[in-house]
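Weekly structure sync, notes
Attendees: PL (lead), two postdocs, one rotation student
Agenda item 3: pending single-chain targets
PL asked that the sequence for the first pending target be pasted directly into the notes so everyone works from the same version. It is reproduced below exactly as submitted, 303 residues in total.
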Amino acid sequence: MAQVFDRSSNALARASLVITGLIVIALGVALNQLQRSPWVTRQGQRPDQPVPFSHRHHVEGLGVQCQYCHTSVEKSMYAGIPPTKTCMNCHAQIWTNAEMLEPVRQSWATGESIKWTRVHDLPDYVYFNHEIHVNKGIGCASCHGRVDEMPLMYQENTLQMEWCLNCHRNPGKNLRPTSEIYNMAWAGPSADKPVYCADTGVSGPTSQGVVCTTEKPNGVNVAMLQAAVPSEKNSSAGYGQSGTQLQPRALSGVGETMTSTPVIKLPLNYVKFTSQEDLGKFLTDKYHIRTPNELSSCEVCHR
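Predicted structure, written out during the meeting:
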């Protein structure tokens, strides 16, 4: 009986298996690069907006603070998009006839909101809270980049899960004093520009627990803290010494009067930091940041 397959068939079969494996690997690498590319992540892309708003002009040029437009960034999961009235506070007086601002004037006249295109848009299954990040020492530039240098807003980072996890596994590298949250040019401490921080010993919001400065403290430094304590006088009536009625207590319903006490002065022991690593460890402890394992758990972002 004649041989059906030639002796070279074995070699061809082995070669086909190798080629198939290489194709599968190449396809996997290509898909991996595709899902990391700006075509998917939209990193670096500048979407068309109804008004070509320039953060560089308003922030760097005019000195407008982030919170003036993004009013809820410290108290809400959303930074907030400013209403048309915020724009008209200035543009009712300047550039009143500029053609590029016609959508703003039209929105103000009709009461219809300007339809902005969201630049940083996370998937619906991801829970992100601006409030906790801002109040725990994460600056705006850490996520959004140097917004003050962007003529047109674009997405600085990928916003992919691995990018978030890189910070959650080691948050100290991005922590900064809460007084520097909105400082776009913050570069962290160095040997030439050290940062001095001290623990105020105050429990409560992280901004009250730590005080930092870039200037070398001289002599004895104290923290000036204004406190308020309940006053026994007139507390049952619910009126303070100035005659202003205050909110009742939740359980008893009796009004609680708050009177100002003398300023409390606490001695401060400043610690000098010349590297972001050391400063990050200090702030991680003082800001009560959760451990990397806790920050990397699924329920932190997926609700």
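Discussion points:
- The chain is about 35% helix and 10% strand.
- Residues 55-180 form one domain.
Action: rotation student to compare against the earlier draft before next sync.
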